[in-house]
Amino acid sequence: MIRWTEQCIPTLRNAPQDAEIASHRWMLRAGLIRKLAGGLYTFLPLGLRALRKVERIVREEMDRAGALELLMPALHPRDIWERTGRYEVLQEVMFKIHDRQDRELVLGPTHEEIITDLVANEIQSYRQLPRNFYQIQTKFRDEIRPRFGLMRAKEFIMKDAYSFDVDDAGATASYRKMYEAYRRIFERCGLRTRIVEADTGAMGGQSSHEFMVLAEAGEDGLVECSACEYGANLERAEIGDQPPRVFAEADKPAQAVPTPGRRTIVEVAAFLEVAPEQMIKTLIYQVDDQPVAVLVPGDREVNEVKLAHALAGVTPVLANDAQVEAVTGAPPGFAGPCGLENVRLLADERLHGLRGGVTGANQVDTHLVHVDLERDAAPLHYVDLVTAQAGDPCPRCGAPLQAKRGIEVGHVFKLGTKYSEKLGALYLDESGQQHPCIMGCYGIGVTRTLQSIIEQHHDADGILWPVGVAPYTVEVLIINHAHAPAVAAGEQLARVLTEAGLEVLLDDRDERPGVKFKDADLIGLPVRIGIGEKSLARGMVEMKRRTDGEVTECPPQDVLKTLAAWGIAP
To answer: Can you tell me the distance from the alpha carbon of 182 to that of 440, in angstroms, rounded to the nearest whole number?
Structure first.
């Protein structure tokens, strides 16, 4: 039992103005966290208790899956990041410092390099594999715009795990173990998650899945099928086959028409009285100092992650005005695929078979109508280049996709040998031959998970804690501090529940009942037990379940029985 008067629970009537989403507001108002500076937060006792509950669930499920806990340094030498080439890739988000010998160190945003270096020195034989190591550690990322509280912070707590196997079958088995462990972790935290296919990004590797908490406040876009199990984030989401786009007067020869001062899709479409989807948007990129023309339907946007994959991982850079004019002969706004020479052409799959389209004529104030791409443009290479959206066909079954928002709380990767080859994590097989370990990487944002729980579990009055992660399970609330029998009964009940193994917060403050009730709803413990003069006169206490507001009266000696009926046990 802990007394409110001995705790530090500084509740607020109003949240600071910079708290943009519900979970951030409730964490501040309920006295779970306090902001030190942008992206930096102090966990107060109530918030820390809930955070430790999440960590305990993570540990239990990781241990159950056979992973071994260790703890790696947060401070890393620069050279180990240079050995994998990720110092350049991630340097914009790294915090960098120099020691007294003027050696550069970085505060780790992640630990692939560090764990691989450890395995390279400690594991030599196939007999020592497979292995899966994990830690719960603080990470640091120099977010350009920290926001949403713990969702995008500069310092945060993460669980990261790394598997090492001798072959693809073993790596797949390790990946599946972590996948299932993550399902259990988030279920025990009371979270409803959607597992979606994801891009591997700067992590590299062969494939990955994200565990997304569906929420309107989510920063990540995703699509899911309305009929089957397919789901993917917008960077990765594929689009099913669609019929060729054929518009009116498709058989006419391409014709140049004046479009004075009209550059944008919207302006040209309105001027020519055509739909935006009839337009062919042509964007010029620079790839290894060579121009590439990228074609997408006029009503869609280029997905630059997909484009980078189509370019074998090379990062494309949108050409500047001078480069566009050098390639097309016209300023931006009038580019088109017809007549371009010595330029690589990539077109989105939805343009395959397009006839009767409209595109830039590579002349100022001029566009082409009646364009048939197969007839009028140089040979095109068709790939999936646009961002999926609601209504697109599912790539698996063809049913319409639905657009959602989500918060990424977990991510699992098949890394392959990217890191083991570069850092020398090699093993000897039965015949003495040397091979690189096949790796997987598995991350959970622990602090982000905590806030995501609140984002999914709150109402107009405060937090609705799931039992497994609540800071305390039961709040015993003495309604009138001046009523001695109520004080005595509250103290006695709190002791009984504590001795039975429940975590109890006793609100023993000399405060108005209304303030106590509002604070009880605000901090949102699963059960509130009110001890008041009127109920005691009837030999009863009042029990309220926070999730649904159900209220019942029972004798104090029956409280444990009622809690058990509600599914709450020590």
So the answer is: 14
pLDDT in tens, 241-296: 999 999 988 899 999 999 999 999 999 999 999 999 999 999 999 999 899 999 99
Residue 215's alpha-carbon distances to 179, 231, 258, 272, 400, in angstroms, are: 21, 15, 47, 41, 21
Q: Where are the domains of the chain?
A: 51-238+403-454, 255-383, 472-565
pTM, to two decimals:
0.88
In CATH, 255-383 is 3.90.960.10: yes
How many angstroms separate the CA atoms of 29 and 41, rounded? Answer: 14
Q: Where are the alpha helices (DSSP H) in 312-416?
A: 321-328, 373-376
Strands 344-348 and 474-478: unpaired
Find out if CATH 3.40.47.10 is the number for domain 472-565: no
Burial class from Cβ neighbours inside 10 Å (0-12, 13-18, 19+) for residue 153 reads buried
How far apart, in whole angstroms, are the C-alpha atoms of residue 334 and residue 293?
A: 13
Q: What is the CATH number of domain 51-238+403-454?
A: 3.30.930.10
- Under 8 Å between Cβ of 531 and 541: yes
Inter-axis angle of helices 22-29 and 446-456, to 10 degrees?
100
Q: Which two three-digit tokens encode residue 127? A: 């007999």
Task: Quick: pLDDT tens for 445-466.
Answer: 999 999 999 999 999 999 999 9
- Residue 549: C-alpha distances to residues 448, 466, 527 (Å): 27, 14, 9
